[in-house]
């Protein structure tokens, strides 16, 4: 027992020599005494934590090293550290050690428990609140788990040796990609829609009326059929190479375009619509009218809907396009229903009862050339194609529109057909009424808005008892806006557009007008793009003064439409006439110092009739010039040259004002530089303060730790 103790424990003096200075000083201050229960418990917890740390270190090693490095074997091979804490003697250890068997049993049990806790990830550690090492062990295990979790994201294999633009044995060009928003695609859909309408409207009549399959009709329809089939085939190729956007980038690789097309439902419908049923089905022995086998060509109708959507978005008369589409759709339904009516009549027997064709038509009675009735039975075998179709179309229109009186059906199939016609007619009537009402409401929306504003102004004038000439001028102003389609708020109309598109649209409309101003010639395009967004349209009535002599100049004007006069103070003498494209007031918004007139208007400008003027304010110009100092310098120099040419600039006063302005700018720059240096110094002081506080906190924490150790040994 003594041998084991001497072998496994380090002498107290040796521990004192190997201890840190602070700990050694504490050991010298406290004399040795027998170890009490609290000290023994702390010693046991210290060994427990060391064993757990050894287990964690073992599981941190790679698998290849775990077989060579076992924490139990390593711990057994190494000399065990002493359980003696500072201030404990060897005699105290013998008194509290117990027997060797009990010590080994406790060690084995402790190792088993710690191993289970380390393998389980420290998820269910017992008495963690009581142990001062519980929270630290859990944090170490969690960090160990997160450090060894590797998430592998499969990356697509890209073969860099394959050219994405290579298609089979030739190289695909980017110019071959069809732009779905371009004019070519729109016109192609329009041409393809003609073929779709032909197949939709003529397949059923050719299967019903035999006259369309003989003579000249047969040759014409044969050519048209295969011309339309060829267009269907070309449209499949167009769909295969129709471009699209992927993450906002146009896709131009042919394989991607083809893959997207064949995965869409459009490709299935296109292939089914082009399937040669007119060549295949006759060999199957199915007893159907020959031309009805081409009914699969109608599956291409979705392309017609695409054309209509593009047409509605491109045309300047969308309401008219909707009405035309609605009327043509209704006429097409009447046409197909007429063909079905004649087919049912032919299957039931022409003239077999009062409901079937020809019903109440006058040509059902056989009349001889001399207007005498023949003795032949009533028949309709010799009716012309026009007679058959016109009566059937009339019957279909009366039925679907629910107007007129028709013969009552006499057979069950006839009752069923008429009932379906009534149901479809009700739906069509409701659709027509709804669409017509919405279209008329959209057409009258502008008029209603105009009348609403005009009535509000009139009510205000009546409330304030304003009558006479002023009220007449207000009414004339509204009438001018309505008659000339000027009742459009540009800011409100363009508010729904992104800033980039709004700027591009405004540049397209107003840039040419703005470039006519001499002070803006040669400046940066970015400045002009900013200024066109700041132009405001103003309308002046006849006799209105745009500006008067002596007014402070705050705006410049560009005449877009109308005629202006520069008149004297008496309002009679006319000095000049300004027409479309004329510009005035541009010098006043430059704030040039030294102008002899003191930046005031030098003449009276009056509108002769109704005039439309673009107005640019001084504040808007200088706000835009903040970002363009070079353009600002050019504009000021050009403005000074114009004033000097007209002898309107006092050069000495301008030079003095420029010197004062430059001196003031230098002072401001000096102050700004000083403020920047002061901010830098304050930032350094704040950083030094933060560093000092961190060091002070660290020292306080060390002192607290020393005090805690001192108090623990005292008690």
What is the name of the CATH class of the largest domain? Mainly Beta
User: Can you tell me the CATH superfamily of the largest domain?
Assistant: Jelly Rolls
Helix content estimate: 55-70%
Rg (CA only) = 49 Å
Q: Whole-number average pLDDT?
A: 75
Q: How does CATH name the architecture of the largest domain?
A: Sandwich
Net shape: extended
Return the CATH topology of the largest domain. Answer: Jelly Rolls
Question: How many distinct helices?
Answer: 25
- The spatial strand order of the largest sheet comes to 5-12-7-10
Based on DSSP secondary structure assignment, what is the total number of beta strands? 12
Please state the structural category: alpha+beta
Major sheet: size, sense and barrel closure? 4 strands, antiparallel
């Amino acid at each position: 027992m003594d041998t084991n103790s001497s072998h496994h424990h380090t002498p107290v003096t040796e521990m004192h020599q190997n201890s840190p200075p602070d700990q050694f000083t504490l050991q010298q201050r406290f004399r040795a005494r027998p170890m009490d229960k609290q000290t023994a418990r702390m010693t046991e917890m210290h060994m427990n934590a060391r064993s757990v740390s050894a287990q964690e270190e073992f599981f941190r090693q790679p698998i290849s090293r775990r077989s060579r490095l076992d924490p139990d074997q390593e711990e057994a091979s190494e000399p065990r550290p002493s359980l003696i804490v500072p201030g404990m003697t060897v005699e105290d250890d013998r008194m509290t050690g117990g027997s060797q068997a009990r010590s080994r049993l406790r060690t084995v049990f402790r190792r088993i428990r710690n191993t289970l806790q380390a393998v389980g990830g420290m998820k269910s550690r017992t008495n963690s609140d009581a142990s001062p090492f519980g929270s630290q062990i859990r944090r170490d295990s969690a960090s160990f788990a997160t450090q060894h979790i590797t998430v592998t994201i499969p990356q697509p294999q890209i073969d860099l040796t394959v050219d994405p633009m290579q298609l089979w044995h030739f190289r695909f060009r980017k110019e071959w990609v069809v732009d779905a928003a371009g004019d070519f695609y729109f016109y192609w859909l329009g041409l393809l829609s003609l073929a779709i309408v032909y197949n939709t409207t003529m397949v059923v009549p050719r299967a019903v009326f035999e006259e369309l399959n003989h003579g000249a009709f047969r040759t014409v329809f044969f050519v048209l059929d295969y011309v339309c089939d060829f267009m269907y085939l070309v449209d499949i190729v167009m769909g295969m190479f129709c471009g699209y956007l992927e993450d906002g980038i146009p896709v131009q690789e042919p394989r991607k375009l083809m893959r997207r097309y064949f995965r869409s439902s459009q490709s299935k419908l296109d292939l089914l619509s082009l399937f040669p049923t007119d060549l295949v089905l006759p060999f199957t022995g199915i007893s159907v009218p020959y031309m009805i086998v081409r009914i699969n060509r109608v599956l291409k109708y979705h392309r017609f809907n695409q054309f209509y959507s593009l047409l509605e978005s491109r045309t300047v008369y969308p309401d008219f396009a909707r009405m035309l589409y609605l009327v043509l759709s209704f006429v097409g339904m009447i046409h197909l229903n007429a063909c079905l009516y004649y087919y049912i009549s032919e299957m039931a027997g022409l003239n077999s009862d009062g409901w079937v064709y020809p019903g109440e038509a006058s040509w059902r009675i056989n009349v001889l050339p001399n207007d005498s009735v023949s003795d032949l039975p009533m028949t309709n075998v010799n009716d012309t194609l026009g007679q058959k179709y016109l009566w059937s179309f009339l019957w279909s229109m009366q039925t679907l529109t629910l107007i007129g009186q028709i013969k009552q059906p006499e057979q069950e199939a006839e009752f069923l057909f008429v009932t379906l016609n009534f149901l479809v007619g009700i739906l069509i009537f409701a659709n027509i009424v709804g669409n017509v009402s919405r279209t008329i409401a959209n057409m009258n929306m502008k008029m209603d808005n105009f009348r609403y504003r005009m009535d509000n102004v009139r009510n205000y004038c009546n409330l304030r008892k304003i009558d006479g000439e002023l009220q007449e001028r207000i009414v004339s102003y509204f009438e001018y806006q309505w008659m000339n389609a000027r009742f459009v708020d540009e800011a409100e109309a363009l508010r729904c557009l992104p800033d980039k598109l709004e700027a591009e649209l405004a540049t397209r409309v107003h840039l040419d007008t703005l470039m006519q101003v001499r002070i803006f010639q040669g400046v940066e395009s970015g400045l002009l793009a900013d200024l066109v967004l700041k132009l405001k349209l103003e309308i002046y009535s006849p006799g209105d003064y745009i500006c008067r002599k002596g007014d402070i100049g705050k705006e410049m004007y560009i005449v877009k439409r109308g005629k202006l006069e520069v008149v004297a103070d008496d309002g009679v003498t006319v000095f000049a006439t300004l027409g479309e494209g004329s510009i005035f007031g541009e010098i006043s918004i430059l704030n040039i110092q030294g102008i002899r007139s003191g930046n005031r208007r030098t003449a009276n400008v009056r509108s002769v009739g109704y005039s439309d003027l673009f107005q640019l304010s001084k504040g808007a110009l200088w706000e835009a010039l903040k970002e363009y100092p070079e353009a600002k310098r050019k504009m000021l120099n050009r403005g000074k040259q114009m004033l000097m040419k007209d002898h309107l600039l006092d050069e000495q006063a301008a030079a003095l004002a420029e010197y004062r302005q430059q001196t003031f700018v230098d002072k401001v720059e000096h102050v700004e530089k000083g403020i920047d240096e002061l901010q830098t110094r304050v930032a350094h002081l704040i950083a030094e303060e933060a560093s000092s506080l961190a060091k002070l906190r660290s020292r306080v924490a060390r002192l607290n730790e020393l005090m805690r150790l001192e108090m623990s040994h005292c008690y």
